[in-house]
Design brief:
single chain; mainly alpha; ABC transporter involved in vitamin B12 uptake, BtuC; two-stranded antiparallel sheet; 2 strands
């Protein structure tokens, strides 16, 4: 008799559990990074099946290194896109940073660390200039940073050739401060058969910090607000100008970090480096769930997008495929990611 009496309660509990499970599944599927996570799993399984070297655990470090060099920039670019803006100068800005540190230290005979610090000032100033010009002119950030892209590209090549008579900086490996700086920006650690570059650590730390700021702080709320509707955000007291300029400066800081690795990994910097990489950073962010219209996205997703690039770049080579098809992959992934992001956003809005 007692067992019969409790059956309806059990059935009700089961129905509640099913409803709760469906609700949890719906929330997870409405996350902006869900598409990139599924894509990363599919690509991982694909290359595990077709590329024997991809299964070698020793190559994990190489894959993560390729992903980290993209992810360090994809994270701030993703934040900027969530804030409703673009930065097409991000790729050459990293080169500008590396060139600044090398040329200043070499030509003035200074300790390498002086060049590193001054390069940080230059990089953050470039970001601040982009943000300031955006508000001063009222032009779209696409046009503002496209102009900065060409300015920096010309300055990189012109100044380097003027000071060195070449298109690359001199080797600075014998200068004071180089060894310690290389340990910070170009070192690596070995964990069993896997060798990890320091950029992997920087990438992970930047992702965690950015995700915390975006999802757990008032600044994160401001970023979503200014990306969704700047006028409405300003009306409720959000510091729109400071938020957006701060995002451009964050891109500048990460460009400095990327440029320092470039310099201390190879001891020299090619002045034409970085052209075209800005699109890779943007595509990684879009694959990760960032909408081109702003106000929606995920820095974790942007990092997953960078991981997809790292796996694909090496996976194609490991599989023996023609690497010329990589650009085709970029285009296809961009289109698919955009469609998926819009769909996920619509599903999330309906909830």
């Amino acid at each position: 008799m007692t067992a019969t009496a409790t059956e309806p309660g059990r059935a009700g509990a089961t129905r509640d559990d099913r409803v709760a499970s469906r609700s949890l599944a719906a929330r997870l599927l409405s996350r902006p990074e869900v598409g990139s996570l599924i894509g990363a799993i599919v690509i991982f399984l694909l290359f595990m099946a077709v590329a024997v070297p991809f299964r070698n655990i020793a190559n994990v470090g190489t894959i993560l290194y390729g992903a980290s060099t993209i992810g360090i920039m994809a994270v701030p670019v993703g934040l900027l896109m969530i804030g409703g803006e673009f930065d097409l100068s991000a790729g050459v800005a990293a080169t500008t940073s590396g060139l600044s540190a090398s040329l200043i230290a070499w030509n003035l005979g200074l300790n390498v660390w002086v060049g590193v610090i001054l390069a940080l000032v230059v990089s953050v100033a470039v970001g601040a200039f982009n943000g300031w010009l955006l508000f001063k002119t009222g032009l779209p950030s696409f046009l503002v940073t496209l102009g900065t892209f060409f300015i920096l590209q010309g300055v990189n090549l012109g100044v380097t050739r003027l000071l060195t008579g070449n298109v690359a900086t001199a080797d600075i490996s014998d200068m004071d401060g180089f060894v310690s700086a290389q340990k910070v920006f170009g070192s690596e650690i070995t964990l069993g058969p896997v060798t990890l570059k320091v950029t992997v650590l920087y990438w992970v730390v930047l992702t965690l910090i950015a995700a915390y700021v975006l999802l757990r702080t008032r600044v994160g709320n401001w970023i979503f607000a200014v990306g969704g509707d700047s006028a409405a955000a300003r009306a409720v007291g959000v510091p729109v100008k400071a938020t957006k300029i701060g995002l451009f400066m964050a891109v500048g800081f990460c460009a400095w970090l990327s440029g320092m690795h470039l310099l201390f990994q190879f001891n020299t910097v090619q002045s034409g480096e970085g052209v075209g990489k800005e699109f890779i950073f943007i595509i990684a962010a879009v694959i990760g769930g960032c909408l081109l219209t702003g106000g929606y996205g995920s820095v974790i997703g942007a990092s997953i997008g960078a991981l997809i690039f790292g796996m694909t770049q090496l996976g194609i080579n490991y599989a023996g495929w023609n690497p010329d098809w990589f650009k085709t992959f970029l285009g296809v992934m961009l289109l698919l990611a955009t469609v998926v992001n819009v769909y996920v956003k619509l599903k999330a809005d309906r909830r």
